[in-house]
């Protein structure tokens, strides 16, 4: 078993990120606004942690910068490389620009154009491969060996997990009375970090993951207590492009099994409905992956313990304009 991240490492990441990552707001959702959207009024208050308000539009800046800020000047001079469907790509590109390093990003060919354009705008070089997460990882490792780049993994690394954990630390500071925190899960960096931060600080608080039914490998791994991998042709079916990873990272899985209380899976219709509700009832902008935790709170509360206050992490807001227009007309 690998060493799990410590609270000290998470707090050090929080200090490292000061002035780089935004301390994002935690918004309470007005129940009356949910009624207007014909959503059954929940028996609990919902709060949204708006990571969409980070400079890159997602939480991924936290882990990427935390890891890269600890690299040597020589490693930064050689450059960094990662593999990502979009948001981690932007996190690495943003951090590389801030630290004066070259960034190369291996992206799948089904990455939304808005995320490709944003990554290029931050000065990164993009290499396109097929849709499988395993394919882009293999290409990144090949280029790293060839050119001496440092690989910045999207989730399976202690420094990445510690950086993502700072999001949950902020929730605990902003709402000490929270009873349950919901985080989306794909590779597991955010859920692993959030659960570690919470259970090491306030173990009474529940931490749950949420993912699409069409890419529910993490739920299967959690329930069977063994790390499973789904084929790319299954996980790429979901509209949640940031949640198409084929399995949890090995270190992430260890954190999930140690600290997470449960994982729920939501349907594609529920994701789209949650996005529509968030757009019109809160004015926050979610991308599909970012709305999964909100969908779990709206439609799967019966699968979780009865509580008074739930905080959901809106992990990203890089929404394609055409999809936004369609949802706002629902």
Automatic annotation (TrEMBL):
Gene Ontology MF, one: L-serine ammonia-lyase activity
Superkingdom of origin: Bacteria
Keywords: Lyase, Pyridoxal phosphate
CDD domains reported in the protein's UniProt record: Thr-dehyd
GO biological process: one example: L-threonine catabolic process
Pfam families tied to this protein: PALP
Cofactor(s) needed for function: pyridoxal 5'-phosphate
Positions of the Tryptophan synthase beta chain-like PALP domain: 23-316
Family of this protein: Belongs to the serine/threonine dehydratase family.
Protein's name according to its UniProt entry: Threonine/serine dehydratase
Species annotation: Edaphobacter paludis
């Amino acid at each position: 078993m690998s060493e799990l991240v410590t609270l000290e490492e998470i707090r050090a990441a929080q200090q490292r990120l000061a002035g780089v990552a935004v301390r994002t707001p935690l918004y309470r959702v007005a129940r009356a606004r949910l009624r207007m959207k014909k959503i059954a009024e929940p028996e609990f208050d919902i709060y949204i942690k708006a990571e969409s308000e980070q400079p890159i539009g997602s939480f991924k800046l936290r882990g990427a910068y935390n890891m890269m800020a600890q690299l040597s000047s020589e490693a930064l001079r050689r450059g960094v490389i990662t593999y990502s469907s979009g948001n981690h790509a932007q996190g690495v590109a943003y951090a590389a620009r801030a630290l004066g390093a070259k960034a190369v990003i291996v992206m799948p060919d089904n990455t939304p154009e808005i995320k490709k354009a944003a990554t290029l705008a931050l000065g990164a070089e993009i290499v396109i491969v097929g849709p499988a997460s395993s394919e882009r990882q293999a290409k990144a490792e090949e280029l790293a060996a060839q050119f001496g780049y440092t690989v910045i993994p999207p989730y399976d690394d202690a420094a990445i997990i510690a950086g993502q954990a700072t999001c949950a630390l902020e929730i605990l500071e902003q709402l000490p009375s929270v009873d349950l925190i919901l985080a989306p899960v794909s590779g597991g960096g955010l859920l692993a970090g959030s659960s570690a931060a919470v259970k090491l600080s306030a173990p009474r608080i529940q931490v749950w993951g949420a993912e699409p039914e069409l890419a529910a490998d993490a739920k299967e791994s959690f329930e069977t207590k063994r790390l499973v991998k789904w084929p790319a042709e299954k996980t790429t079916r979901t509209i949640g492009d940031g949640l198409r990873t084929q399995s949890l990272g090995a270190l992430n899985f260890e954190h999930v099994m140690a600290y997470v209380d449960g994982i729920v899976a939501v349907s594609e219709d529920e994701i789209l409905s949650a996005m529509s509700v968030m757009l019109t009832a809160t004015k926050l902008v979610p991308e599909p992956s970012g709305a999964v935790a909100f969908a779990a709170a709206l439609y799967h509360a019966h699968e979780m313990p009865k509580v008074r206050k739930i905080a959901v992490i809106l992990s990203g807001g890089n929404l394609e304009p055409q999809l936004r227009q369609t949802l706002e007309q629902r």
